[in-house]
Amino acid sequence: MSYDVSVEVSETSLHRRRAAISSVIGTTIEWYDFFIYGTVGALVFPTLFFPDSDPYAGLMQTFLIFAIGFVARPVGSFIFSHFGDRFGRKTTLIFTLLMMGIATTTMGLLPTYETIGIWAPLLLSILRFLQGLSAGGEWGGAVLLSMEWAGRDRRGFFASLPQLGSPFGLVLSSTVVSLLLTVSGDAFFSWAWRIPFLFSLGLVIVGLYARLRVLESPEFQKVLKDENVSQAPVLESLRTYPKTILWAILVNIVMFAAFYTFSTFFIGYGSTYLNLDQNLLTNATVLGGIAAALAVVLFGHFSDIVGAKNVYVVGVLSLVVWAFPYFVLVNSKQPFLIVTAVAFAFFTFGAMYGPLASFVASSFPARLRYSGSSVAYAIGAVLGGGIAPMISTFLVDNFDSAFAVSTYLISLALLGLIGALKLKEL
């Protein structure tokens, strides 16, 4: 098999656009699927899957299954980054999209505890694990496919485009749930909650069409042509770049903790502890997702001008500044102040997330880039995002104050700053 690395100049722009568009569409679908569990779960799963528990225990059990998806992400990153660095980004991304869609659609068909008892949360856990496997392999491939089609001077911007999948997925999932809450009323808690999961099937068809039209990235084609493919890319990246992976993990932890505190925990905290209107909570996260998307593109662009590391540090410092005012505004129970708190919180997240892709990916050589960046991203997701809703719920329940969560976020932000200062782009 031969690989043409001399792509016609006239076609490069077309394939660059296709790579960027398909990456944004694919990651949006992947994150919609991954987030819909957190959005719907925080609202109805404690009652449907853990009916014998009190509200606090039911929410914690829901968040425990939520965390299973993050535990699976490093496993998925090990598996799919191996194939991504050996056989290509495109093929791997098609498989991760299919796996996520099947798992999410099946969630929408799952019987509840009332029908099959303990099997309901057990099956939900298995499907959440499959979601995590898929998410673990998705991020690295989508970022690389877009970034490696870009020129050297536009890496930050093009690498930030797949990052839009996270806020877009949040906006889409929250919008769908908000509309269903409005339209279906009480029926949402009996059967309409299934619709957001079943909606995934149509989205996957769109995503597959977009990804099948993309060519493999030119940088990976060159790796193939030079016969420079690693036989065990994950192990080689761990052996050759252990410190780089460690610093990249620290960079990811705070970003993930911030995102899932401001989204999944916020909905659970607002509905369980503050008794806020559920439409207000989901609509606030919709606006937050829009703010995050704007920040991702803006700060991704700035990263090509002043450097990804510098932009990321600004984002982390913004989080430190906003950690306490955020909960002051949320605890006011005033809709305008709540929306303001959430919007700016997500903007600080976007300031970190926008430059993060090129910052982390550029710290590894092309032949190990999928593996090194994916492993760091997935482990950071577990230690940051996967346990953040549970830790935040525990802190609020034991300290009787959400400001304990602010202190938690600031502590992780300091770790992120250490990682950023140590991490070096190649």
Description of the molecule:
With 426 residues, this protein is mainly α. It has one domain: Up-down Bundle (Growth Hormone, Chain: A). 81% of the residues lie in helices and 0% in strands. It has helices at 9-49, 55-87, 89-107, 113-116, 119-147, 155-160, 165-184, 195-198, 200-212, 218-225, 233-240, 242-272, 278-306, 308-331, 335-361, 369-386, 388-399, 403-422. Helix 2 runs antiparallel to helix 3, helix 12 (242-272) packs across helix 17 and helix 13 packs parallel to helix 15. The mean pLDDT is 87. InterPro entries: MFS (IPR011701), MFS_dom (IPR020846), MFS_trans_sf (IPR036259), Sugar_transporter_CS (IPR005829). Belongs to the major facilitator superfamily. Metabolite:H+ Symporter (MHS) family (TC 2.A.1.6) family.
Please specify the SSE layout and strand pairing.
Layout: H1 9-49, H2 55-87, H3 89-107, H4 113-116, H5 119-147, H6 155-160, H7 165-184, H8 195-198, H9 200-212, H10 218-225, H11 233-240, H12 242-272, H13 278-306, H14 308-331, H15 335-361, H16 369-386, H17 388-399, H18 403-422
Membrane topology: Multi-pass membrane protein
Family: Belongs to the major facilitator superfamily. Metabolite:H+ Symporter (MHS) family (TC 2.A.1.6) family.
Function: May be a proton symporter involved in the uptake of osmolytes such as proline and glycine betaine.
